[in-house]
Give the backbone structure.
Amino acid sequence: MKKNFSDNFLLNRTQRIQLLSEQQQWDLIIIGGGITGAGILKLACQQGLKVLLIEQKDFAWGSSSRSSKMIHGGLRYLPEGQFGLTLESVRERQKLLQEADGLVTQQSFVVSHYARHFPWPWIFNLLLWIYDRFAGKKQHRSWSKENYSYLAPGIKQKDSLGGSQFVDAMTDDARLVLRLLQESQQIGALTLNYFKAVQLVKTNDKITGVIVKDEESEQQIELIGKVVVNATGAWANDLFDKTEHSIELRPLRGSHIILPSWRLPVASAISVMHPEDRRPVQIFPWQNVTVIGTTDVEHLQPLSLEPAISQLELDYLLDCIQYQFPDANIENEDIISTFAGVRPVVAGHTLLSNKWMSNKWMSKTGLGKNIKSLKPSQEKREHSIWQQPGLISIAGGKLTTFRVIAVQVLKLVLKELNIKKSIEETQVFEQTSAKIFNELEKAILEKSVLEKIRANYGQLAYQFLQQTKPEELNSISYSKCLWADLIWAAKYEQVMHLDDLLFRRTRIGNVLPNGAMDEFNKIKPICLQYLNWTEEQWQYEAIRYEKIWKTSYSLPKLADETI
């Protein structure tokens, strides 16, 4: 086995907390275990810093496991004139396709064209020409009405002018986070989930650490750090309020529904315009199911609770499907599950991106009054970074550009630590060696299984295989998840609750009927053996999981929100 496989990645929770208590000072403490925090963690480790990452819930619990799963170049930003953002996103997409091969994969996208409706073929293909120029290669083409129907079976034919096809990318967002955490621990980082930052520590007007609380024991520990990074996304103000600063965040919810692939079979991701407001809605293949989303609504519920789709959002998505696929007749009974995420959007971004513009100034000038007059879908998705002595905070941003955000934050960290290093082109993912890949090829005949293991576990792919029995390489029902994935996660990936295992370490809670509870008779022995749960703990977790699934991943209760 590789020597680093015995480092921090293998520690159990007790050992992690012990190490946490023994470390007198950290170079960097990162608060937030989503894609932003994980990206910063990985780059910081690569620079040799002593780094700790803590997360108040589970890793990727927030928007980083509830996104639309797309690694895209931001084609929709081109008509708005955001060429810089699009170019940056395209470049990052290409890097991820190369570095995270298998975890980030190319995906065909198609857009329908109709008479008298945007997007018109000529202008859309002009945008695609610019899009491909940014990528450095031609990847789009036009399809006639007759041939387009093969790409989008069952799509509305009335007034059809055909469609356009281009290329972007897809991922498993939660596994993207977990791969970064895994590689960071292999080179010395310490990570802890269910550890909440309850208060920042300030000394002489400088942030010098953070007080954290263990969810399990409720023990509080004061940690000292040369620099603290607030990468909590939509929760950023939970810390800012205690330091007399705040960011004008606007929590926006995006919700999706999941269907069996046979009920709405799609090979390409299909972007369609909603008949009500002409917003684009995506229908795409993912994890052997079909996903439909997203909405864009104000999220008014407490951020501490699991977000959930509302009845109006569900109706909105079903209306779109009925309009665009009139013969599909999709109904509530066809839906396997739903999921909703809250985007950490900075309100009125163009006004607030300047760190010298305080909220007090905004209020005094009256500019802040119009921030929320923008429709949710009109808010910009760029990120913003705020800095004060000892503390760096990030909000906003996109899944695709997490490395760019990490580089910008780490530059500030290194400057604070008086370290001069060039990190612009740092490769964020470690590459699987040819030797490991050859060993995998010898052991596994099915290419899709080989690719999946290599994508999820990178340099630990061979160790994964060494510990796996042949029968554990079987898929769970029709999902892409292997029984070996559950065992590995229970052993090494800091699973605390059943929903960690079924919604984020694997996705079977999302893609299998009834939240995969029909598989509990096989899942239970894994939890008892590798998580050391008692019968009583299993019963508690099973009841807890069922409640979470029914509340936040099933069909909604009536709500009075508006789209």
